[in-house]
Amino acid sequence: MKRLFTLTMLLFATVVFAQEDEKPTLSISGSVDAYYQTYLTASDNDAPTFGTAFAGQSGFALGMANVILSYEGEKAGVVVDLVTGPRGAGATFATDIVDGIVNQAYVYWNVSEGTTLTFGRWNTFLGYEVIAPAANFNYSCSYLFSSGPFSHMGLKADFTLGDDVSLMLAVTNPWDTNDISMTGEYGLGAQLGVSGQYLNLYYDSGNNGGLGFEIDYTGGFDLSDSFYLGINAAYNDNDGAGFYGAALYPQIATSDDFSIGLRGEYFALHGDGDDLPSVFATTLTGSYTVDNLIIKPEVRLDALTNADGGLYGNFVDSDGVATDSLAAFTLAAIYTF
After folding, report:
1. What CATH number labels 24-336?
2. What residue ranges do the domains of the chain occupy?
3. Residue 221, by phi and psi: left (phi above 0), alpha (psi -120 to 50) or beta?
4. What is this structure's pTM?
């Protein structure tokens, strides 16, 4: 009887714990970041800009704070990513940097073991970098990432085709039209992933501020246990004009707590005319981790390789005179939870 009672209790406990495992679970994560930036070749008072997204302030500045709520059931779930601060406002094209902003909000359904449908607003699949700074090695952003979409509003389907092969298909509102589409136009997206290498495609009509067509490759290779090389290349065309470029991200881990990485990027505009601007940007970043805190000292130099002035405005020197280069030092702190 003791044995029978023990076996019965074990069976009951197993059933109870199994049932508890099947209950929906709520998880909370997020990050907070701030930085200090000073220009090495210009006066901080002139507030020059690299022409890329985020980290565009001099002196002490807030990046963003975000909280991600994820409620996951056995077959379906929901994710809500709320952000505030200048970086969040820039990513969502909001005018108020104080109020809460919806960065991502979507529901998903795991239709089968290898198929997931997602409906709502999610961050873009294009490019090597992302909005949340904790997931990027460099604190400042590239021209390629800054020129593409930040988020999409629509429906996507993710398929697992094999151990290392995936496919994503999406229909969305046009480029960065995250809330509504009042023109009756839509965008199409696709991503093919093979062993950590991704070929991304996006298309909309290009009207009403749309992006047009973009093809993008994102990937990387572990060259050794401590040396990683990331790669990003993209070409965009919107009625004969657009941009193209490539970036390399070599990163070396010198210890468990510290890594150093370089982003070397060439970026150019194309279209009518022979003297469209292009730039070569070099960013050297260190990354030191203490528990959940990441400290990133960074030096960045952008040098124009064609045309006068910057890509989206002029670089200036310490006298406020237009020049062909701009350098800055940035110290960022990012805490994740």
Report:
1. 2.40.160.10
2. 24-336
3. beta
4. 0.87
